Automatic annotation (TrEMBL):
This is dTDP-glucose 4,6-dehydratase. It comes from the Bacteria. Pfam families: GDP_Man_Dehyd. It comes from Vreelandella lutescens. Residues 7-303 form the NAD(P)-binding domain. Belongs to the NAD(P)-dependent epimerase/dehydratase family. dTDP-glucose dehydratase subfamily. InterPro entries: dTDP_Gluc_deHydtase, NAD(P)-bd_dom, NAD(P)-bd_dom_sf. Its EC number is 4.2.1.46. It is an enzyme of class 4 (lyase). Its cofactor is NAD(+). Signal peptide: none annotated.
Amino acid sequence: MKHTDSRVINIDKLTYAANLDALDAVRENERHYLAQADICDPVALQTLFAKYQPNAVMHLAAESHVDRSISGPADFIATNIVGTYTLLEASRHYWQTLPDSQRKAFRFHHVSTDEVYGDLLPEAPAFIETTPYAPSSPYSASKASSDHLVRAWHRTYNLPVVVTNCSNNYGPWQHQEKLIPLMISQALAGKPLPVYGNGQQQRDWLYVEDHARALHCVLTSGRVGETYNIGGSNEHANIDVVNEICVMLDELAPRTTGSYAEQIAFVTDRPGHDLRYAIDHQKITHELGWRPRESFSSGLRKTVEWALCRHEQP
Ligand SMILES: Cc1cn([C@H]2C[C@H](O)[C@@H](COP(=O)(O)OP(=O)(O)O[C@H]3O[C@H](C)C(=O)[C@H](O)[C@H]3O)O2)c(=O)[nH]c1=O
């Protein structure tokens, strides 16, 4: 696994979650631990299970960037499919050794993506948990495959799993390859802001702390064997997101002349680019009482302000 990343926590850098009360609670008070080993290494995983004796595994480790999956799909197959299989097997063998009461309480929480549902037409209803899978990219196909493996381990071996599928995350500490951090850093460096195609593709934006709360909620209260969609109720076209970033930067860190929007450059589209994703999160809201708290403009402002602090004090 060359490049481990995840949409909420970078497994190798727990700092990403350090300020998230929910995940601190998961880690420290409730004796759940996050897998930190290479998930493709069964021996490392066995050592980790023996050391921590976890009562849950929250599986966030993944190759996550669609563009990378197009230029080099092999790592996605290795990490997302074989890695998930390896982690499932390590979890199953460990789980089988637990006494009855702990076996019942154990959870394998698989964190996945709305991209498994594929491309959504402009007027189509948002994805629900039973929307048929139709992944478009090597990335989303690998995540779809991992979702199926997790459900199979539940059905065949009774491993107590829960699955969540989330929309586009954003917020502090996100990997620089993703749209929002990339646009902020390119803008501040005076470089072009590369918008793929016509920029009319729509994504639903989920603030990282909202996602972390949702994960905690599903891990602790979700029904075994169930899937929960998690979204931010914030659907926006990419070009509108980029323009909003430019407006915030014009206010908070103005250029000497003109606007950051002048740096926008429309570039060749991503192959197989999905036009729209949208999440219906009614199930988790009705069953578990979770809903997103952050509006897109407040979340984006926090993200831009955080990036500006980092830019001033590298
Ligand atoms: C990097 C970049 C992206 N884009 C477009 C492509 C997408 O339509 C949108 C967001 O792209 P990004 O690569 O940040 O995210 P997605 O491809 O939507 O996928 C992300 O959200 C889902 C849920 C995951 O599951 C993925 O793991 C996560 O990477 O902006 C551009 O126009 N220019 C750019 O330079």
